[in-house]
Amino acid sequence: MVGIGRCASVGALLVALAVLAPAVTATCDDELPTQLVGNYSGLACTPVWNTFVLRYAQGKDNVLRVVLSTMYSTGWVGMGFSKNGLMVGSSAMVGWMGKTGVAHIKQFQLQGKTPSQVVVDKGSLVSNDHDHTVLVQQAKIYLAFQLRFTQPLKSQSVLLAFGSAIPVNDRLSEHQDKTAIVFDFTTGSSSSASSFPEGLKRTHGALNLFAWGVLLPIGAIVARYCRRWDPLWFYLHTGIQFVGFILGLAGIVAGVSLYNKIQANVPAHRGLGIFVLVLGILQDWEPPAEKPTCLFFSFVSTGNFVGP
């Protein structure tokens, strides 16, 4: 029983250490490596996320000096600057140690969410004619770089991410974890960034669900089974279908706006939406009854080959 109790105590201690490890390592107590002291002394410091620590200072010439550090074993670490808190459209500084021990730090432009859309040596960040530096010391990686802006940074959307695979030919693997924060470079405070257009996403889904899943099927059912209520069935069918089509069209417009904001890679979803929209347009266009196309219209509109 004593042995079991000791094992349980040791296990509990190991779990506690594992839980507290990030909080212990994410501090500003560690001194900068001596290789960075010359160009990166006098920086303000604050823990920002997990084991990520941000050291920074802004000069009068709008030059931002940054040293980003975190625990490191392999892979890559990046810090991005975004206009809206989203990955797509942002620019990032990414550093890693190569397999041969050579340090790398490069700018990447995040044009999309696939590895092929993360383009090396492109972006909107302007270097301060100073060599950027990557160091690994005591299981920590340090990304040191200087950027010039047109005006002092105040509240800025910042992206932090890391991947577990070493980049090959400057091609970044998918990140293992990421976050977006709004960091105030004047006060050193930060908050979670939530710029994903949730409202637009809900609007897109609700409009399409109600239009294509409720109103239009009801309109088709009226046309198929309520013809004995002539001419009421026709006015009900036409009115319901027209309102349903307008709401569905509004939902698709919301979807296009959502896609432009987040650049989602959903080709099947987009293709299906366009196909349904085409069917809706055909349904709302009724040719003269004597023409052969009337048979096709009747099938699209009511689901059978019975003319109106």
TrEMBL record:
Transmembrane segments: 209-226, 233-259
Keywords of this entry: Electron transport, Membrane, Signal, Transmembrane, Transmembrane helix, Transport
Domain DOMON span(s) in chain numbering: 50-165
Signal sequence, start to end: 1-26
Residue ranges of domain Cytochrome b561 in the record: 166-308
Top-level taxon in the UniProt lineage: Eukaryota
Keyword Membrane: yes
Cellular component GO terms, alphabetical: membrane
Subcellular location: Membrane
Coiled coil: none
PANTHER family reported in the protein's UniProt record: CYTOCHROME B561 AND DOMON DOMAIN-CONTAINING PROTEIN, OS01G0680900 PROTEIN
Protein name: Cytochrome b561 and DOMON domain-containing protein
Species this chain originates from: Urochloa decumbens
